[in-house]
Amino acid sequence: MVQTTIITEAIRESIAVKQAIMEDAVLLDTIHMAAIAMIHSLQDHKKILFCGNGGSAADAQHLAAEFSGRFYKDRPALYAEALHCNTSYLTAVGNDYGYDEIYARMLRGIGQPGDVLVAISTSGNSPNILEAAKAAREQGMIVIGMTGKSGGKMRAYCDYLLNIPSADTPRIQESHITVGHIICEIVESSLF
Ligand SMILES: O=C(CO)[C@@H](O)[C@H](O)[C@H](O)[C@H](O)COP(=O)(O)O
Ligand SMILES: [Zn+2]
């Protein structure tokens, strides 16, 4: 059956990508270091900002809410936000300055040295995410990139590159959420 093949292949590929992450010592180390960077920023009363497009915007919002709401533990809120949640802002800045500017402009307004930007792009090439990463660096922020295998142009702007070993957008996104949840667990268990 065609549907059964699609279902089992998607699951098989998703497992294979996660298996490849588990066998990539450099990536595992980078996940750990990215979590430590977030812990230090939060201990220093800095904030964690997330951005992405489409499914990655949903991932940005999901992960920000794990920090600002709660993950496993009943504990104080951590300062985390996804940058796409204000549609009035997005439509105004997209309309007046262009879509590539939507996140960069906000970061120039609110980004502080020591804050963290988690920039999520499966291709690593979305212009608004690249502009965001550049603006974050100009503000003295730490940039954690979540991308696919190649890292794309994002590679040049990341302090920590979490490049999932796949070139398939949905499979990459599934692993972004897995890695994001792992980071949430490390951060929460270290701070509380
Ligand atoms: O969720 C999906 C596909 O799984 C889409 O909404 C996807 O996120 C969008 O096409 C994005 O615009 C892709 O951008 P990016 O990941 O290359 O930065
Ligand atoms: Zn998706």
From TrEMBL:
Gene3D superfamilies: Glucose-6-phosphate isomerase like protein, domain 1 (3.40.50.10490). Its main location: cytoplasm. It catalyses: 2 D-sedoheptulose 7-phosphate = D-glycero-alpha-D-manno-heptose 7-phosphate + D-glycero-beta-D-manno-heptose 7-phosphate. It is found in: Cytoplasm. InterPro entries: GmhA/DiaA, Phosphoheptose_Isoase, SIS_dom, SIS_dom_sf, SIS_GmhA/DiaA_subfam. Pathway: Carbohydrate biosynthesis; D-glycero-D-manno-heptose 7-phosphate biosynthesis; D-glycero-alpha-D-manno-heptose 7-phosphate and D-glycero-beta-D-manno-heptose 7-phosphate from sedoheptulose 7-phosphate: step 1/1. Keywords: Carbohydrate metabolism, Cytoplasm, Isomerase, Metal-binding, Zinc. HAMAP family: GmhA. This is Phosphoheptose isomerase. It comes from Chitinophaga japonensis (Flexibacter japonensis).
